[in-house]
Amino acid sequence: MTGDRYSCIDELRQHEEQGRDFSITTVPRAASTCLILAPHGGGIEHGTSDIARAIAGEDFNLYLFEGIKAKGNAGLHVTSSRFDEQSCLEILSACDFVLAIHGCKGEDERVLLGGLHRTMKREISDSLQTHGVNIESSGHRYPATDPMNICNRGRMRQGVQLEISAPLRRSPNRHRVVDAVRAALLAREPGANSS
After folding, report:
1. Phi, psi dihedrals of residue 90, rounded to the nearest 5°
2. Residue 38: per-residue pLDDT
3. pLDDT at residue 194, rounded to an integer
4. Predicted confidence (pLDDT) per residue in 158-171, tens digit
5. Kind and range of the H or E element at 135?
6. C-alpha distances in angstroms, 182 versus 13, 131, 175, 179, 194?
7. Which residues of 118-138 are buried (b: 16+ CB within 10 A; e: fewer)?
């Protein structure tokens, strides 16, 4: 994204302080080969951290990069194809599948699906529709097909990206996104709890 203040996390770290301006959360789950991440969490793209946490639950690996400034968190956005925070790269290198949670603008409650893992994208799309969530899986501006996109950098080199509209992130209906995505992931991940 050309509008980003920083081109990579190293550049961001030269001007921003961890613990004051941003925080990083990494929760590994030994039994899981799936990583749920929100690279623009906290005040950067409001609501994405909470959704990622809820999807991960006690079952899946979790990574959050969160803006924690009183204001100006949008300046901490590093586009997904340049997101190279070290602890994120470490945890995703041990995961087969990566699901990235993002926020986008929009007038209605909608999820835009992207990523290179076509099968998982279809399974998540079907589950979202079953749970009554409006989706778009092609023809939008967030296809996430760049191999360097953080969602495509797990061991399989293909993942899924969800761009969740601001109205849906603020809505009580966001639980439908969580329920739908967890249902799709739990159906695939052996050893994960279905509770």
Report:
1. -65, -50
2. 98
3. 44
4. 999 999 999 999 99
5. strand 135-136
6. 33, 11, 10, 5, 9
7. eebbebbbebbeebebebebe
Average pLDDT over residues 124-128: 97
Average pLDDT over residues 105-110: 95
Name every residue whose Cβ is closer than 8 Å to that of residue 3 and which is 6 or more positions away in sequence: none
Residue 166: other Cβ atoms inside 10 A:
16
3-state secondary structure 142-162: CCCCCCCCHHHCCCCCCCEEE
- The structural domains of the chain, ordered by start, are 9-186 (3.40.630.100)
**pTM metric for this prediction:** 0.95
Distance CA 97, CA 94 (A): 9
